[in-house]
């Protein structure tokens, strides 16, 4: 069992190292951080959605934007489309599960917003439909995926594709990059010296 622990940690580290070595991922993340900060400063917002573990990621990331990551600062405009049980169950019941996020983007989105769809396979039907709706409304589309990017690859203006086919390793890398994404938006919004402010450890 101890060997299993070491094997899985080594696999996680290897995936992270592959992400670190991929200059395109770093460049894309910086570009997405800048455009998201610019959108928020213009009165627009970030919308985020995913399924399963990626739904938890969506909520986690949005909490970092609205509350804080490590430093107290004004709240940043972001909405997770995975949290309203009445909307989710009504949409699933009346229109089908594939339209869960599409319907919310239609209601809450506006031109100039940013939509981040998270899917380890890149093929989640409800994320695909949400991306189509976002495109129709002039919302910038960003995909966090794995494998080869799946169908989302051609639907997103910006793609972060984790070089792995192992779901849990993709998700681990997504979470690390999501935290860094929030950091980038903070710095583009509040200035590069923002990182020199005293950090707060959450209880």
UniProtKB/TrEMBL annotation:
<dbReference type="InterPro" id="IPR046348">
    <property type="entry name" value="SIS_dom_sf"/>
</dbReference>
<dbReference type="GO" id="GO:0008968">
    <property type="term" value="F:D-sedoheptulose 7-phosphate isomerase activity"/>
</dbReference>
<protein>
    <recommendedName>
        <fullName>Phosphoheptose isomerase</fullName>
        <ecNumber>5.3.1.28</ecNumber>
    </recommendedName>
</protein>
<feature type="domain" description="SIS">
    <location>
        <begin position="36"/>
        <end position="195"/>
    </location>
</feature>
<feature type="binding site">
    <location>
        <position position="171"/>
    </location>
    <ligand>
        <name>Zn(2+)</name>
    </ligand>
</feature>
<keyword id="KW-0963">Cytoplasm</keyword>
<feature type="binding site">
    <location>
        <begin position="119"/>
        <end position="121"/>
    </location>
    <ligand>
        <name>substrate</name>
    </ligand>
</feature>
<feature type="binding site">
    <location>
        <position position="124"/>
    </location>
    <ligand>
        <name>substrate</name>
    </ligand>
</feature>
<feature type="binding site">
    <location>
        <position position="64"/>
    </location>
    <ligand>
        <name>substrate</name>
    </ligand>
</feature>
<feature type="binding site">
    <location>
        <position position="179"/>
    </location>
    <ligand>
        <name>Zn(2+)</name>
    </ligand>
</feature>
<comment type="similarity">
    <text>Belongs to the SIS family. GmhA subfamily.</text>
</comment>
<keyword id="KW-0862">Zinc</keyword>
<keyword id="KW-0119">Carbohydrate metabolism</keyword>
<feature type="binding site">
    <location>
        <position position="64"/>
    </location>
    <ligand>
        <name>Zn(2+)</name>
    </ligand>
</feature>
<keyword id="KW-0413">Isomerase</keyword>
<dbReference type="GO" id="GO:0005737">
    <property type="term" value="C:cytoplasm"/>
</dbReference>
<dbReference type="GO" id="GO:1901135">
    <property type="term" value="P:carbohydrate derivative metabolic process"/>
</dbReference>
<dbReference type="InterPro" id="IPR001347">
    <property type="entry name" value="SIS_dom"/>
</dbReference>
<comment type="pathway">
    <text>Carbohydrate biosynthesis; D-glycero-D-manno-heptose 7-phosphate biosynthesis; D-glycero-alpha-D-manno-heptose 7-phosphate and D-glycero-beta-D-manno-heptose 7-phosphate from sedoheptulose 7-phosphate: step 1/1.</text>
</comment>
<dbReference type="GO" id="GO:0005975">
    <property type="term" value="P:carbohydrate metabolic process"/>
</dbReference>
<dbReference type="InterPro" id="IPR035461">
    <property type="entry name" value="GmhA/DiaA"/>
</dbReference>
<dbReference type="InterPro" id="IPR004515">
    <property type="entry name" value="Phosphoheptose_Isoase"/>
</dbReference>
<dbReference type="GO" id="GO:0097367">
    <property type="term" value="F:carbohydrate derivative binding"/>
</dbReference>
<dbReference type="InterPro" id="IPR050099">
    <property type="entry name" value="SIS_GmhA/DiaA_subfam"/>
</dbReference>
<keyword id="KW-0479">Metal-binding</keyword>
<feature type="binding site">
    <location>
        <begin position="93"/>
        <end position="94"/>
    </location>
    <ligand>
        <name>substrate</name>
    </ligand>
</feature>
<comment type="function">
    <text>Catalyzes the isomerization of sedoheptulose 7-phosphate in D-glycero-D-manno-heptose 7-phosphate.</text>
</comment>
<feature type="binding site">
    <location>
        <position position="171"/>
    </location>
    <ligand>
        <name>substrate</name>
    </ligand>
</feature>
<dbReference type="Pfam" id="PF13580">
    <property type="entry name" value="SIS_2"/>
</dbReference>
<feature type="binding site">
    <location>
        <begin position="51"/>
        <end position="53"/>
    </location>
    <ligand>
        <name>substrate</name>
    </ligand>
</feature>
<dbReference type="GO" id="GO:0008270">
    <property type="term" value="F:zinc ion binding"/>
</dbReference>
<feature type="binding site">
    <location>
        <position position="60"/>
    </location>
    <ligand>
        <name>Zn(2+)</name>
    </ligand>
</feature>
């Amino acid at each position: 069992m101890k060997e299993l622990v070491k094997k899985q940690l080594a696999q996680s580290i290897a995936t992270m190292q592959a992400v670190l070595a991929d200059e395109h991922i770093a460049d894309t993340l910086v570009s997405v951080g800048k455009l998201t900060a610019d959108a928020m400063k213009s009165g627009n917002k970030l919308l985020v959605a995913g399924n399963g573990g990626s739904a938890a990621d969506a909520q986690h990331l949005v909490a970092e934007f609205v509350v804080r990551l490590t430093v107290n600062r004004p709240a940043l405009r972001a909405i997770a489309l995975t949290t309203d049980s009445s909307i989710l169950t009504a949409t699933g019941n009346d229109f089908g599960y594939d339209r869960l996020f599409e319907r919310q983007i239609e209601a809450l989105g506006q031109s100039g917003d940013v939509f981040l769809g998270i899917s380890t396979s890149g093929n989640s039907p409800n994320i695909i439909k949400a991306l189509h709706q976002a495109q129709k409304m002039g919302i910038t589309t960003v995909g966090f995926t794995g494998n080869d990017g799946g169908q989302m690859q051609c639907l997103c203006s910006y793609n972060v594709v984790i070089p792995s086919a192992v779901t849990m390793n993709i998700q681990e890398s997504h979470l690390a990059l999501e935290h860094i994404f929030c950091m980038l938006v903070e710095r583009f919004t509040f200035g590069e010296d923002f990182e020199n402010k005293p950090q707060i450890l959450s209880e």
